[in-house]
From TrEMBL:
The chain crosses the membrane at residues 20-42, 48-72, 84-105, 150-173, 220-243, 296-318, 384-404, 416-439, 445-466. It is a multi-pass membrane protein. It comes from Bifidobacterium vansinderenii. It is found in: Cell membrane. Its main location: membrane. This is Lipopolysaccharide biosynthesis protein. The keyword Lipoprotein does not apply. It holds the Pfam family Polysacc_synt_3. Keywords: Cell membrane, Membrane, Transmembrane, Transmembrane helix. The keyword tRNA-binding does not apply. Belongs to the polysaccharide synthase family.
Amino acid sequence: MSDSKKQMKFSVISGLFWKFAERMSSQLVSVIVTIILARLLMPSDYGTVTLVTIFITIANVFVNDGFGVALIQKKDADDLDFSSVFYFGIAFSIFLYLIIFFGVAPIVADFYNMPILVPVLRVLALQLPIASINSVQQAYVSRKMIFKKFFYATISGTLISAIVGITMAYFGMGVWALVAQYLTNTVINTFTLRTIIGWRPSLQFSLERLKGLFRYGWKLLIQSLMVTIYGNLRSLVIGKVYSANDLAYYDRGSYYPNLIVVNVDAAMSSALFPAMSHEQASVERVKAITRRAIKMSSYIMSPLLVGFAACGTTFVSVLLTDKWLPIVPFLQIICINLLFRPAQTASLQAIKAVGRSDLVLKMDIPIRLFGLTALIVSVQFGTIYIALSEVLVGILGVILYSLGCKKTIGYSLKRLYWDFVSNVLQALVMGVIVFAVGYLNINDILLLFLQIIIGAVAYIVISIVCRNDNFYYLLNTVKEFSGRKK
């Protein structure tokens, strides 16, 4: 292996290590906080905040997506590019905040007949200008592949916001405890990252540079907007057609499986896209990185998702109490749907890295149209069927993204599917074992512990018996990385 390839491999592994450490540590704290808050707050409190965060998430797409990705992908991006995006982002985010404050907030409150949504939405939307600053900082860190900086910033925001949220919930502040937690997290994360990266915008602005970045980024912005609106549309419909409790069960049922995916998937996306962008001149190198990413991420995520689905009832009963047991079916369905995510993520990053943002948009339109049709049909039958329709959308997504991957980097469909399906099949065998253990008539806490241990041991044994190359690659990579760090 050449020195440049070794250096790139080390950069990718280092990025994955720090990004994964960031996600794992922050999500570990988030899980603990969520469990505590679930005991202190009512499902209706979560339902209320979920409705609000949907609109903030959609607004954040305009602030965070498009330009940030373009800054990472552009080969010769300099300080003028970053400064231009920085100033434009602040101005545009303030404009969005005023629209939400005077227009969106009252309309949303009237639509759902919930007056509390007006002040909650106006306060939570304050994170938009802060998020615009952070998006440029994150693009700078990603481009430089100095992901250790993310670790410190995220941990700071997560810990401080956790203290704020739990304290306010303990004193009976309900919805406002969640609002304060979300807002504090954004503020501390942004301030910490700004302090440690050493980058500051210069007093210069170029409309021409902004236009150049926009030509690449607008297609990804539209695609991300479609994904975000579509992803939150189910929650909007459930909140309107059904009750706040139904929305809370659906939202929390999705939340816990997504914690697993966020840890691995976000780490993979953050580390892979800049690495692929550096190698965009070599299709074979991008293809090699993509294939290894799909194999490794599915090898890690599949047993976590399958195992979580198998012990979902025990998990909810022990950690969240029986009042949250209605989330179990949603949790299990979402786990199934997320099994397709590794192939989708790696394929999407590869297509973006070689500059085909137009293809990303073309593939995503039919996926969202199909999803909208599935939602219209399933909403008539109940929230469970709404969740099931997501599985169908996930299957279509992996098919179309894999077609795009074959077209851009020559990664054959047969090879791509086998690279992640083989891991899923092994995880399913482990899942059967974990599910069977659940029938033991013992204390729930001991049962949950036993299911986790037996599941982990079973997956390792299955990997060895089946001679799964991902298992040995992971071991060798950890040894190599540890040795180089020393």
